[in-house]
Predict the 3D structure of the following.
Amino acid sequence: MNLRVKFTKENYLKYISHLDLMRLFQRAFRRGNIPIKYSEGFNPQPKFSIANPLALGIASAQEYMDIELNENIPIEDFIKRMNQELPQGIRILDAKYIEESKSISSLISWSYYEIKFKANNIKDSEELDKLVKSWLKEDRIMIKKVKHKGKKAIEKDQDIRPLIGNIIISSQSPLASLQLINLNCLLKAGDNGNLKPTDFIDAMDGYLNIGIDFNTLNIKRLGLFVEREGKIEPPM
Amino acid sequence: MIDINKFDKVLKKVEKPARYIGMEKNSIKKDLNKVKVKFAFAFPDIYEVGMSHLGLHILYNLINNEEDIACERVFAPWIDMEEEMKKENIPLYTLENKEPISNFDFVGFTLQYEMSYTNIINMLHLGGIPILSKDRKEGAPFVIAGGPCGYNPEPIADIIDFFVIGEGEEVTLEILERYKEFKEKKSSRLDFLKEASKIEGVYVPELYQVYYKEDGTIDRMEPIIEGVPKTIKKRIIKDLDKTFFPSKLIVPYIETVHDRIPLEIFRGCTRGCRFCQAGMIYRPVREKSVDNLLETAEKLVKSTGYENISLTSLSSCDYSQLQLLVSELMNRYEKDKIGVSLPSLRLDSFSLGILKEIEKVRKSGLTFAPEAGSQRLRDVINKGITEEDLTTAVSYAFSEGWSTIKLYFMIGLPTETDEDVLGIKDLGYMVKDMFFNQPKDKRKGNLKVTLSAACFVPKPFTPFQWVGQDSIDEFNRKINLLRNNIRDKKVTFNYHDPKLSYLEAVLARGDRRLSKALIKAWEKGCKFDGWSEKFDFDKWIEAFNETGIDGDFYALRDRNIEEVLPWDFIDPGVTKEYLISEYKKAKKEELTRDCRLGCTGCGVNKCFTGGVCR
């Protein structure tokens, strides 16, 4: 029995890593008496997988995981028991039994982020909007990616233009002396191309020279999406 | 509370920010305005180390069980966090309420290893608390300390307002009760210190004067006011089944050093290894009952969700009901995939059945501690194990599929010769040969033998407390002897830094004149000295020179039996006569039996009853 679960990772819980989150769930399953399946072998591990690992420091309003159960338990029960055991920043929002054999991580293809920051070299959000619009007209947007192979670090050029989807820019507080920019963007995620929001921000700051104050940068994932026949929709 | 906007800002800039946020499962956050006493439990190292310490969990829950007292945690921030905190003017704060530690009634440090002393100074400084006890004014927190290093409190006597010697469960509550009365009466700081000094196990350094001889050794130590005890008797819990043990443990978000349930099965050790301080100061042995342990385990599994239970003690294979306990735990938890682990395996009590039972769920490398390379030297230190014990254990391990074997040794033990040192290599090679002497089709896995050598540090309240340590040069010579002789791909040799062990020896057997050198070293930037990448030996030597301290006087000098030792005023139950007789027996290579087999007259039963000493 496979259960697809939607949950949040917010507030200070954004400061725990993907592996920390895995451990946290493992222990919450045990405390909550969730009949989760374990792998075989000397070091049995609970069978669950999180759709798309979130980088440390990034919050999320919608995360997904698939878990394998030994027996069917009512959904409401599952949600209630888990939420009793989880810290405030992590809430199970929804769960659903699924038939699908494809793993959740292979289904995900887009991630939607809300990125907030202040930028020293621009007047307001309209100015940034214009700059970004013309930037996206470029055929290629190149960034340097450092890949670690063993002890060696290899620098590689990568074109991220195909990994960038829609971008919506607005301003948060028109009264503040330095405006807080609110940028929502859809970026490729998953096995077939993945763009980290931090790489995107670095690229934008580099190309447009807008002088982002990284102290003010706040990134939150708003949702994960699958692409079915050209349409982007939620995974459950 | 600290400024949360600033706090949010710094969290973005540091590695592992989850060290600093608190809010873990089973942590306890009370309204600080509604409690009578605020106690900050301070661990002078980073979160991952401190959270692995069982004593923290015991005292945290014990104190928080008192409705009108709040206990909150504080750890040493790592270097990056310290810098950010300084930039933003954030004082050192507790994890629960993010309250500056200077607003607490007590800041209680646990002293687990000497090399954390500079972190204590640093934490006080970051918390805006005067470093020297004498500079703390009315209203400042009482800075107190306890733990194994408290058995020689003198090197930090100028810094700590008072020490608690021995086990803390009962005495901590007595102190806090006394403090409530003091707070209501609004008496002076000194009045409370005088009052506290009357509690058994409490040592207030400023109420004593130390007199020195011309040669620098101690002439005598005397209380400066009446009514203050001349000797401080350690505190112990008589019956561990009746004392407090938490039913909940804080479950950290990030991986800690010991990320599992610590099920404490007994205290004390009956083996009597002559180098071992824990084996002497934690006497007598007191076991918990199987029923009690199973009940505790059940509560802890439910409240934490941990996947492993570790049976902790100084020598877990010595637990008289080990077979029963392990079988019961396995029966109950195997289906839930909860493993059981034994952190301290002894070769001689290596119970094949038990190990086999445990490995059904999880399997890891095996670690043994022969401590010395030759039988002669193992007799000197009273580590009563033989080469045969090792071969039996290792051949069983190989046949059951283990292939990673770690052997722990010490170099620089009293009477050690080069032959003893090379015995370390011989044992490692013997293990390797045993592996390859198995028929090829019987060999399982890829053999890895690790020989690890620590530099011997003589410790107070051991039969070797009078012994001069090997010099750094001599340690290095012995290390090189081994390095040059161990030339095998399958056998790895690693060793501790002799400079660090030298400093540890200075601090372990130092007196109160060292406080100023410690502060000087901290002023020069020393902290996290136990972390090899942060340890700066040259700065320490400068600090010694500038404060007129001769490190060799404390570390290298052979002391006379008659000499007054800085820690002589503490009574750990084990008598000095016993330690002397053990020292003499060591020189004669004579063994002393395990006192479970019959009393060996250490004296602890004269002051304390309980456990095997009944």
The radius of gyration of chain A is 20 Å.
